[in-house]
Design a protein that fits this description.
Largest sheet: 8 strands, mixed
Helix content: 25-40%
Oligomer: single chain
Strand order of the largest sheet: 11-10-7-8-9-15-17-16
Structural class: alpha+beta
Shape: globular
Length: 413
């Protein structure tokens, strides 16, 4: 992409920002939303359909403000770039060039002003997009032109309209997933036995989030609000990339078992139960537990694997051997029952109990849970901006060590 094309995209983002700011201003002046849409469409430098997508995005933000007390009125943005939001076929077009096997794009940056070229990116994402463009069972939806660190990206949404997910009642392996601040505990349990267990650690997320929080607090005290917002965006991007990598490892591990179903804790009311003091509450309330669960849900759904939720009560405190439940049973990453002295990795133990509750939900036989396989762990680290591909395609990652006989494998950049 040359400098002239970058300038054109920048002008398109400035116009998108102006349109959204105008929507917020007219809403402040108590205009009817139907009148606002007519006004901004008439004045916009974008094609009509693109302006309507921008209107939809802005009014969704306003709707959250009016529906939920925790959301303030969306602020007008005068400093940051704003995504150009478009529909496929009207605001932008994609086509697979059969000769070169590349995906060619045509993006309307402004009215009657277009950009053309070929997409570049991770091969995993390009292959997914080619499937969506060539398969009638897939649909290519809205896209946004986003400027990230001086590089323009096209974020495209695709939908697999006819994916068939297996019936949960037919599952034979229940894969419990215990999501924590710095790791995910996994356990595969059948009606006969505990088949396997695994712990995926991601300590960098906890460390980096603490560093970002410290930097933002210092910026706030110095009045550097624009830099503080930029750092918040960097933190979201880092955590988002990490969660994609972790969720792929969860799905890859679950796929090895016969007829699996992935079992989560129902986190709907989790935040209401968190009360550990101001500092710990801030850390736990801001964790994207639900986002990681969402990633782990939709990835296996593409492969036909179902998921379900169970009541999370006491999964971290209940003993597998004797059933005794007490907060004192858990000491950090170590589970040590104060009643019978049963010991285990706390997060793996919680994963096993989640699997067992999944079996109980379907009135299945629950096996003895006190004779568990050796805990295996995998550490996930990231340097730079990873492409969020599966492990065997990710050029930023290499895997060292083996994953058998209790050995510890590690993933590093």
């Amino acid at each position: 992409m040359d400098d002239a094309e970058k300038r054109l995209l920048n002008c398109g983002q400035l116009e998108a920002r102006r349109v959204v700011n105008e929507i917020f201003r007219l809403d402040d002046e108590n205009y009817d939303w139907n009148d606002i849409e007519d006004i901004v469409v008439e004045r916009s430098g974008h094609v009509k359909n693109t302006t309507q997508r921008l209107f939809e995005k802005a009014t969704n933000a306003l709707q959250r403000h009016y529906d939920e007390d925790d959301y303030g009125h969306p602020r007008q943005n005068h400093t940051e770039s704003y995504p150009i939001r478009m529909n496929h076929g009207e605001g932008y077009q994609l086509e697979v060039n059969e000769a070169s096997d590349e995906i060619e794009y045509r993006v309307s940056a402004l009215k009657y002003q277009y950009l053309r070229g070929s997409l570049s990116g991770s091969q995993h994402h390009l292959n997914r997009l080619k499937t969506a463009l060539t398969n009638d069972e897939w649909r290519v939806g809205t896209a946004e032109v986003v400027n990230k660190y001086g590089r323009y990206e096209l974020h495209v949404s695709v939908t697999h309209e006819t994916a068939e997910v297996a019936d949960k009642q037919d599952a034979t392996t229940f894969v419990g997933v215990d999501v924590n601040e710095d790791c995910v505990g996994l356990a595969a349990v059948t009606e006969e036995t505990v088949v396997d267990s695994f712990v995926i650690e991601y300590p960098e997320v906890k460390r980096q989030r603490h560093e970002f929080f410290t930097i933002r607090k210092r910026m706030q005290s110095m009045g550097q609000t624009s830099l503080e917002r930029e750092m918040r965006g960097c933190e979201r991007q880092f955590v988002h990339n990490q969660l994609h990598q972790v969720s792929r490892r969860v799905v890859d591990w679950a796929q090895q078992f016969e007829n699996p179903v992935i079992v989560f804790e129902d986190l709907k009311d989790m935040r209401d139960d968190i009360e550990y003091g101001t500092r710990m509450n801030r850390r736990l309330h801001s964790l994207p537990f639900a986002q990681l669960q969402e990633f782990v849900c939709y990835k296996p759904a593409w492969c036909g694997i179902p998921s379900e939720t169970i009541d999370p009560e006491y999964t971290s405190q209940e003993c597998l051997a004797c059933g005794h439940t007490a907060r004192a049973n858990r000491q950090g990453k170590r589970f040590d029952c104060v009643a019978c002295s049963f010991q285990d990795h706390a997060d793996r133990k919680a994963g096993v109990l989640i699997s067992a509750k999944g079996l109980k939900e379907q009135n299945r036989h629950v096996p003895a849970l006190n004779n568990l396989p050796v805990v295996r762990t995998q550490k996930v680290r990231q340097r730079g901006n990873g492409e969020c591909e599966p492990p065997d395609h990710n050029p930023y990652l290499t895997i060292r060590g083996n994953q058998t006989d209790g050995q510890v494998g590690s993933v590093s950049g």
